[in-house]
Amino acid sequence: MSHRTAPEHTHPDDVPVETALAALADPVRLSIVRELSTSEEWSRSCGTFDVPVGKAALSHHFAVLRAAGLVEQRDIGAKRVNRLRREEFEHRFPGLLALVLREE
Amino acid sequence: MSHRTAPEHTHPDDVPVETALAALADPVRLSIVRELSTSEEWSRSCGTFDVPVGKAALSHHFAVLRAAGLVEQRDIGAKRVNRLRREEFEHRFPGLLALVLREE
């Protein structure tokens, strides 16, 4: 696992609003975003989220979150750890994260 | 056409945030919402929107918009006319409509 390709990211500034909305319009991805919002940056590896999906599906959900500018990932040893791109995303789409986070 | 069933509506207060986001995460529906936002209430019938889809698909898109609390429809003679539920939707999801309308 430690030799895999580094994840590709999209900066929120380059994300169309439709892409951001679609990324957040899914219960699994919303769950991940909500869990990340209450976790320390880079403290959560991909396997630690409480979501009812398999490894391949989870990997797809993280790819969608990266492409929407919501999540940044970094490989540390065998672990891929995450942070919510809260400030950059808020700057691009003011109020959107707050809206989905308050709905828990 | 004038004897069809009246459209069913969902009030924004009863709409989950995922449903609202999914409704807006589509270029055709965004187009309809944007056109409605600059039109007088009840002035636009379903056939007057500049979107590249057939009648059945358009009918589906309007059903999604009604279910998300975004659009209200009323049958007047043979015409089904529309209004954006701007205030009710804004009350339920503050800032969300503004976010998608500014992105045109």
Question: What would you say this structure looks like, in words?
Answer:
Chains A, B: One of its GO terms (molecular function) is DNA-binding transcription factor activity. Chains A, B: This is Transcriptional regulator. Chains A, B: Keywords: DNA-binding, Transcription, Transcription regulation. The structure is a homodimer of 104-residue chains. The first copy, chain A, is of the alpha+beta class. Chain A has a single domain, classed as Arc Repressor Mutant, subunit A (Orthogonal Bundle), CATH 1.10.10. Chain A is 43% helix and 13% strand. Chain A has five helices and three strands; from the N terminus they run ααβαββαα. Chain A has helices at residues 17-24, 27-37, 55-67, 86-92, 96-101, and strands at 44-45, 71-76, 79-84. The first copy, chain A, has a three-stranded antiparallel sheet. In chain A, β2 and β3 form a beta hairpin. In chain A, α1 runs antiparallel to α3. The N and C termini of chain A lie far apart (33 Å).
Low-confidence stretches of chain A: none
Number of strands of chain A: 3
Strand line-up of the largest beta sheet of chain A = 1-3-2
Tell me the radius of gyration of chain A.
Answer: 13 Å
Strand/helix succession of chain A: HHEHEEHH
Kindly report the average pLDDT value of chain A. Answer: 94
How many domains make up the coordinates of chain A? 1
CATH topology of chain A: Arc Repressor Mutant, subunit A
Considering residues with a beta carbon less than 8 A from a beta carbon on another chain, report the largest interface and each chain's count. A-B, 18 and 18 residues
Structure annotation, total helices of chain A: 5
Structural class of chain A: alpha+beta
CATH H-tier superfamily of chain A: Winged helix-like DNA-binding domain superfamily/Winged helix DNA-binding domain
CATH architecture of chain A: Orthogonal Bundle
> What's the CATH class label of chain A?
Mainly Alpha
How far apart are the termini of chain A? 33 Å
Organism (chains A, B): Streptomyces palmae
InterPro entries (chains A, B): ArsR-like_HTH, HTH_ArsR_DNA-bd_dom, HTH_MetalResp_TranReg, WH-like_DNA-bd_sf, WH_DNA-bd_sf
GO molecular function (chains A, B): DNA binding; DNA-binding transcription factor activity
Protein name (chains A, B): Transcriptional regulator
